[in-house]
Automatic annotation (TrEMBL):
CDD domains: P450_EryK-like (cd11032)
Keywords (A to Z) from UniProt: Heme, Iron, Metal-binding, Monooxygenase, Oxidoreductase
Stated family: Belongs to the cytochrome P450 family.
Gene3D superfamilies found in the cross-reference section: Cytochrome P450
Phylogenetic placement of the source organism: Bacteria, Bacillati, Actinomycetota, Actinomycetes, Micrococcales
Organism: Pseudarthrobacter defluvii
Name this protein carries in UniProt: Cytochrome P450
One Pfam family linked to the record: p450
PROSITE patterns per record: CYTOCHROME_P450
């Protein structure tokens, strides 16, 4: 998509698609503004999307405006602060070790299937108290859900997937209601806002958002990181000798191959963006993936540079909806990458591999990532 973004930033940075009526915003400053000016650009859109998936996310953090957004978010911020997340590091390292032990002797693997996918799923499942035998199902659910854009009518597959997911979560919520634990779902069940419990759609929204939205994106951050490093001569070796550089390198991966390429908003009032008047009620797509390649913000924007600093990318959004899971995603990706570097010597993308991207304009990542190395 990157050459197309570049063309749009240069020729039509605020553009209306005649077919769908949606507006598309491509420049860094405009994307940042659309993401963060929540009084002008609303996140509420689930209600406009009649599909099952639209309804499922309709009462979640990501589709809620203040004041409800602030109230809902305050219930989960504690669980995701950098400090709370750091406490998970030993467990994440242990899980990474287990996954690495299964492949280290083999000399080749699909890094998506064998590491990047299972790691975030297991971590969030444990946080939410999901039984381990149920994890496999999320893969299918999230695949179907991310392949949908909100503007297109949902397909039957999407709707049946959503019903399956809703049934699963309702059963899980019931179970926790009768036997509370120390997991996130139990704490959401106990939470009150102004003396009121969360509604069932709000509980479902949390489950769906945490289990689906956070997993696929972290998987893709890890996969995209390996791809960026493999393509950039010498960087794998450099990170191996300077592991302290890994977090900064991951920020550059987030900029250069953003796992989330676009987010939606709806204009609350007639608003001028760039030199275009966007009318009240119009859907807007903010192209994060384009903002992160904008030469007005980043020098040599089209180059992957692990030394880039500062790096004010918008990969986790901006403003009140800034990604709740960012500290967790960063920690998981750092641990995974360090393990790959130290345990898979000579790591490279398998020669002749056809790298195919996932079928989505929102999520950016590879379906498979075949790699090889010299097993010890
Ligand atoms: C919000 C990206 C990982 C949970 C967001 C937003 C972006 C984003 C761009 C802003 C949405 C908006 O402005 O409308 C990413 C990326 C990730 C990642 C690139 C991985 C590399 C995670 C993880 C979790 C998570 C691991 C949970 C464990 C959330 C939640 C929100 C959110 C709950 C909604 C926050 C709100 O509306 O207040 N994420 N995310 N994300 N993310 Fe992430």
């Amino acid at each position: 998509p990157f050459p197309q973004y570049e063309r749009m930033r240069a020729t039509a940075p605020v553009f209306q698609d005649d077919q769908s009526g949606s507006w598309h915003v491509f420049r860094y400053d405009d994307v940042q503004r659309v993401l963060s000016e929540h009084a002008t650009f609303s996140s509420r859109m689930g209600g406009d999307n009649p599909s099952g998936t639209g309804q499922l996310f309709a009462s979640s953090l990501i589709t809620t405006d203040p004041p409800r957004h602030r109230q809902l978010r305050s219930l989960v911020t504690q669980a995701f602060t950098p400090k709370a997340v750091d406490a998970l590091a030993p467990r994440i390292a242990g899980l990474t070790d287990e996954l690495m032990a299964e492949i280290a002797g083999k000399g080749s693997a699909d890094l998506i299937r064998d590491l990047a996918y299972p790691l975030p799923v297991i971590v969030i499942s444990e946080l939410m108290g999901i039984p381990s035998e149920d994890r496999e199902r999320f893969k299918h659910w999230s695949d179907v859900i991310v392949s949908q854009t909100r503007i297109l009518p949902a397909s039957e597959t999407q709707d049946s997937t959503t019903s399956e997911m809703v049934e699963y979560f309702l059963a899980l919520i019931d179970q926790r209601r009768s036997r509370p634990g120390t997991d996130l779902i139990s704490s959401l069940l106990a939470a009150e806002i102004d003396g009121q419990k969360l509604t069932v759609p709000e509980l479902l929204g949390f489950c769906a958002l945490l289990l689906v939205a956070g997993n696929e994106t972290t998987t893709n951050l890890i996969g995209n990181a390996v791809l960026c490093l493999a393509e950039s001569p010498g960087t794998l070796e450099r990170l191996l000798s300077e592991p302290a550089l890994v977090p900064q390198a991951l920020e550059e991966v987030l900029r250069f191959r953003s796992p989330v390429q676009s987010m939606y908003r709806v204009a609350v009032a007639d608003t001028v963006v760039g030199d275009q008047l966007i009318p009240a009620g119009a859907p807007i797509v903010a192209w994060i993936g384009s903002a992160n390649r904008d030469g007005q913000q980043f020098q040599r924007a089209a180059e992957f540079d692990v030394d880039r600093n500062p790096n004010r990318h918008l990969a986790f959004g901006h403003g009140i909806h800034f990604c709740l899971g960012a500290p967790l995603a960063r920690l998981e990706a750092r641990i995974a990458l360090e393990a790959l570097l130290s345990r898979l010597p000579g790591l490279s993308v398998a020669s002749g591999a056809q790298l195919e991207r996932m079928d989505s304009s929102i999520v950016y990542g590879l379906k498979e990532l075949p790699v090889t190395w010299q097993p010890a």
